[in-house]
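2 proteins. here.
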Amino acid sequence: MDQLNKVLEENRYPGRGVLWCRTGDGSRLGAYFLTGRSAASRARSLRLAADGDLVVAPIDEREHDHLRHYVAARQSGEWLIFGNGEQVATVADRVADGLPMPLSLGGLDYEPDPPIFTPRLTVTAGGPTGADAWFGAARRSSLDRASTNRMTLQVSNLEPGEGVLMTTYRSDGHTIATGTPFHEVRTTADSRSALLDELWSALRSEVRIAAAVFEPGRLDQVRILQA
């Protein structure tokens, strides 16, 4: 199991990422971050909207782009849903309707953005015990077929210092490929603020846009850093 900061530092362009972990103080926390290279990708902010959703929004009055601007986190009953696209709202609605987690996360497709075909990553976390998380990933096959590979991962009862990370991409600085399905990681953070600092410092300054750390049931207390 690698250190969280090492995994991110070695990935020169992780794209967007979702993390569920337990810090040293015992807190169970989710995190979401954005990195980008193009001017359009970088012209975004991560902010708490008036309705309580955490949203990725344009920093100016540019037209809404459904691949770049979306709800990144939403509380739905006992569950906090977060991820890298418009599917977050879809999954939150399914959870609110009482669908089981595998069905709530099922049937999603990767983004229609050739040639990369960005995976859609979604996490539902919290629940009745506060200790559970479900990860869903919709990824294009690395073979020639265009159909979606869908993965659901249940994570329970993390020990302090443990976490699970997914990123949309992995890059050596020259080529970009679909990210590794998931990483089990360790964090030295002992609080919400320390986790946000660890994430932020591990992302390369030339691509980082925003990062947020939040707790199920307390999305209104989200902590955000912006480039």
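next one coming up
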Amino acid sequence: MIQEKKVLAIIPARGGSKGIPKKNIIKVGGKPLIQYTVEAAKASKYIDEIHISTDDVEIASTVNGLGLHIDRLRPKHLAQDNSKTIDVMIDVLDYYNKQNVRFDIVVLLQPTQPLRKSFHIDEAIEKYLEFNEESVVSVSLVNEHPILMRKINEFGTLLPLLNETSTIRRQDFTPFYIVNGAVYINKVNELTSNTSLNDNLRPYIMDRRYHVDIDTYNDLKMFELLLDEEGEQ
């Protein structure tokens, strides 16, 4: 809790994954992938409740082994390839509402961003309150700057994405950021099925070294390398 506001963290962990089967519980660095996010959420100073939303009994069993009890599985219609995360969040909030349990702030933590730490979560929540409860999304500086990106028109001609000259020093480029998927924060009573989480208003800027998105086996290898680097520091 922070400033008398109750905070719910939702960790979505669907069983189906085309790129990496059982991705959320695959072992990396000796732990199931989801454990990194669970540990970060548990270590947060402000999170009051952690809810794992999963349709998969094996994931539920793994999470129960981490000390979080899952007493319901996600409805199947919300566990499809085209299911929207915002609808999953609303389902979880409805579940608590039916038990007369209310929260003020909801934090979405995707297990595919395992390098996010508890201090990232807490700093993002503090930013949310600093800016009068405007929605927050974590971002990182882009590696490939859009000023150097081009599209090809119907005539086969290169066109710039940005209406800016690229004949400037790289250090003078305007900073651009990418939504990294690590932390989303919203006011509970403002969430609707039309809410676009990636369009949350306030940026919480994370150092690029914490940005990894696990979608392929190559991403897993990169994550293992980053874990090794962390262990050597």
